[in-house]
Design brief:
- This protein is mainly beta.
- Helix content is about 15%, strand content about 40%.
- It has seven helices and 51 strands.
- The protein starts with a strand and ends in a 10-residue tail after the last helix.
- Its main location: membrane.
- Pfam families: PKD (PF00801), Sortilin-Vps10 (PF15902), Sortilin_C (PF15901).
Length: about 725
């Protein structure tokens, strides 16, 4: 249906329908149960015969009503003028907007007459007793035309001395004030013009009983329309009398005997070519509503129902009317479960409304159980308690298996849905070893907050790979196959949020490491934030850039403050691996000896001195990749704080450890001050290495005598090959 128009009589509609790529006008008198084409006028305005034969040719109407209340639009009718319809249209095989004219029907669309060659606005006067027509406002006019015989004859009258573009006409309400007001403009630049016409004088008297005649509503001669015989009282055409306020349009309405055309196909049925209503392919007439409870009765459809507002009686009514039958006792069937929004996702701590639907079964005697999947379940004795849905709030994120059970004495039915309850990720921390061994698996872990369960997707970007490794677990194992610095990024996706964190991992064939701890007073000044560790790390690295880049120190988060000191082989090592390992071992022994004797300390601020201790000597990466050590990431967290103090250790040994002294002599460098970058102002306290006490100097000399001969040749080789000390804070 392209357009539809309600014609003012109960059950009567005119519609434009598209069939076979053509738009045609159809009319119905029983609310769409039956449709037929409009019969074209027999003659034109000149009285010549029009040879238009159904169904190849018919009348087609434009059904657009006017949005302007002061214009009539392309079709109009009035309830107080039953059966009169005025419309713009054309005659032919289909609807066209070329060669249009004006047409009128006085008998509710059964017959039509041609009244104008051009489009007009037509208004009803005196409750339809007279018709006024004016050309469309695209052309200025001085004249109007009036008809007192339902459009059969029109008289022309002048209402303006100057042609007027008519923009509308208003008929004032009231039976005593018969005034119509035209408004428009003389030109497109002129002001609005109002012209009032009192048309009372054209009626010489009020209508009496002899001025009326009866009119029987019919459908091509069929007197029963919508189950009634309706008789209207209308003014005789051509009588110049005023109808008056006591005019009654319906004279009588008598109910008809019901016949087949008073009934249409019921829901789920469709009319076949032979005219019978049979079940559609998707409809099962044997299914009984779940509201039908044992011991009650229900209306079993015959496939037909009486057209709405049809007033017919008796006849075939009993044959087509649904029959009462006892509700059968049935097992539940067709149980379905959904959310009110139709989604399978929900936000944490928000109401989720579940809807339970049952196609078959006794709703009053069927027990419903709903398990929300989070340890909570509810039960209802019948479906009437849950018509508005069942609400639940999830307190944790995750994927929940929500199941429903419908059960009665004859059987049961179940259904399940999986609901994803999510909340946005607020923080992600990437845990990875600072140093990894080539061709050996390491664990990479992403810790998210708030904690999610199975609702987070992890994207691991490893090195220069163009495609990520995707996982639902926050930890993976990976093997680095080449030495050097590798950048690893993890992206975490949950709900509509994506966060990421990046770490750089040094990959070597072998290395040495020392676990460091500090005197407890350092914990008092540790705010345990990455910025503090990074700022202190940048200052110490800047101070030691002239020493070496072969040392890596990692200060771990948390307290007590801890760190790990990594000794790495030189990246351009030309000697064999065995000799490199021996060099790292000897350097490790020197550092361990100094740390074990408490020879390393630094001044954090005036009056606050921190001593560096050795905790343990390790020969493997901090994070072991073996499955039994999957918890070693937590050990890394507990030891990250060792970073800053181990740096100060190296700085102090520039003067106190024999091989550091040799390095200083070779480069003829002075001791450098270490200035924290936490605050770049001049008032920032300086962190400097302290002088050893006399007792410590004695101990150093004794240690120097023991090891000087042993490592003198090693140190010369070590520094000639520019072995670097690399300081790196978390």
């Amino acid at each position: 249906v392209v357009d539809i128009f309600v014609a003012g009589i109960k059950g009567m509609l005119i519609a434009n329908r598209r069939l076979d790529n053509q738009v045609k006008s159809y009319i119905t008198y029983n609310k769409g149960r039956d449709w037929r084409l409009l019969q074209a006028p027999a003659t034109d305005l000149a009285g010549n015969d029009i040879h238009c034969i159904l169904p190849f040719c018919s009348l087609h109407l434009q059904l657009q009503t006017s949005e302007n209340p002061y214009l009539s639009g392309s079709i109009s009718t009035k309830a107080s003028a039953p059966g009169i319809i005025v419309a713009t249209g054309n005659i032919g095989s289909e609807l066209s907007y070329n060669n249009v004219g004006m047409f009128i029907s006085s008998d509710a669309g059964n017959n039509w007459r041609h009244i104008f060659e051009e489009e007009h606005n037509v208004w009803f006067l005196d409750k339809g007793g007279a018709l006024v027509a004016v050309k469309q406002p695209t052309v200025p006019t001085r004249h109007l035309q009036i008809s007192f015989d339902e459009g059969r004859q029109w008289t022309r009258h002048s209402f303006s001395l100057v042609p007027l573009f008519v923009d509308g006409m208003l008929v004032e309400a009231g039976t005593e004030n018969q005034i119509m007001t035209f408004f428009g403009h003389f030109s497109h630049r002129s002001e609005w013009q109002l012209i009032k016409i009192d048309y009372k004088s054209i009626f010489n008297r009020k209508c009496t009983e002899g001025d009326y005649q009866t009119w029987h509503l019919h459908n091509k001669g069929e007197p029963c329309v919508m189950g009634q015989k309706q008789i209207y009282m209308k003014r005789r055409p051509g009588n110049y009398c005023m109808l008056g306020k006591d005019y009654a349009k319906v004279l009588s309405a008598e109910s008809c005997i019901c016949r087949a055309h008073d009934f249409e196909c019921d829901y789920g049925y469709e009319r076949r070519r032979e005219g019978n209503c049979l079940p559609a392919f998707w409809f099962n007439p044997a299914v009984v509503s779940r509201s039908c409870s044992q011991g009650q009765k229900y209306l079993n459809s015959t496939g037909y129902r009486k057209v709405v507002s049809n007033n017919c009686i008796k006849g075939v009514k009993d044959m087509y009317t649904p029959r009462k039958q006892m509700c059968p006792n049935r097992a539940p069937k067709g149980l379905s479960l959904s959310t009110r929004e139709g989604k399978l996702t929900a936000d944490l701590h928000t109401n989720v409304t579940f809807l339970v639907h049952l196609d078959e079964g006794d709703s009053m005697r069927t027990n419903i159980q709903l398990d929300f999947g989070d340890g909570t379940a509810v039960s209802y004795s019948n479906l009437s308690w849950i018509e508005e849905g069942i609400r639940h709030v999830y307190k944790t994120a995750g994927i929940f298996r929500v199941s429903a059970l419908a059960e009665n004495t004859l059987g049961f039915d179940t259904t399940t849905l999986y609901l994803h309850v999510t909340c946005p990720v607020e923080h992600v921390q990437f845990l990875a070893p600072f140093v990894a061994i080539k061709n050996k698996e390491v664990n990479l872990t992403a810790v998210v907050w708030p904690i999610h369960s199975r609702t987070v997707t992890y994207f691991w970007w490893l090195g220069n790979n163009t495609e990520p490794v995707i996982s639902l677990d926050g930890s993976i194992s990976y093997t680095f196959t080449s030495e050097g610095m590798n950048t690893v990024t993890v992206q975490v996706s949950s709900a509509n949020a994506i966060l990421q964190d990046t770490k750089t991992i040094a990959v070597q064939e072998f290395f040495k490491s020392l676990l460091l701890s500090f005197s407890p007073n350092l914990d008092e000044y540790n705010p345990d934030v990455p910025e503090w560790r990074q700022d202190v790390g940048r200052v110490i690295k800047k101070a030691l850039l002239q020493v070496s880049d072969q040392l890596l120190v990692a200060v771990f988060p948390g307290v007590p403050t801890a760190a790990e000191l990594f000794l790495l082989p030189h990246k351009n090592q030309s000697e064999g691996r065995k000799k490199s390992e021996e060099e790292l071992e000897q350097i490790s022994e020197i550092l361990a000896s100094a740390l074990n004797q408490n020879l390393v300390e630094f001044e954090l601020k005036p009056g606050a001195r921190v001593i560096v201790y050795i905790t343990q000597l390790t020969l493997a990466p901090l994070v072991d990749s073996m499955p039994r050590h999957s918890s070693s990431a937590m050990l890394m967290l507990l030891s990250v704080v060792f970073l800053g103090l181990a740096v100060f250790l190296i700085y102090k040994f520039k003067r106190k450890i024999p091989w550091i002294n040799i390095y200083a002599e070779v480069n003829q460098e002075k001791e450098q001050e270490m200035i924290s970058s936490v605050n770049q102002s001049d008032s920032t306290p300086k962190i400097t290495l302290s002088e050893f006490t006399t007792a410590k100097e004695v101990m150093e000399k004794e240690m120097d005598a023991r090891v000087k001969r042993k490592i003198h040749g090693l140190i010369n080789h070590f520094f000639n090959s520019k072995l670097l000390i690399w300081m790196n804070f978390g």
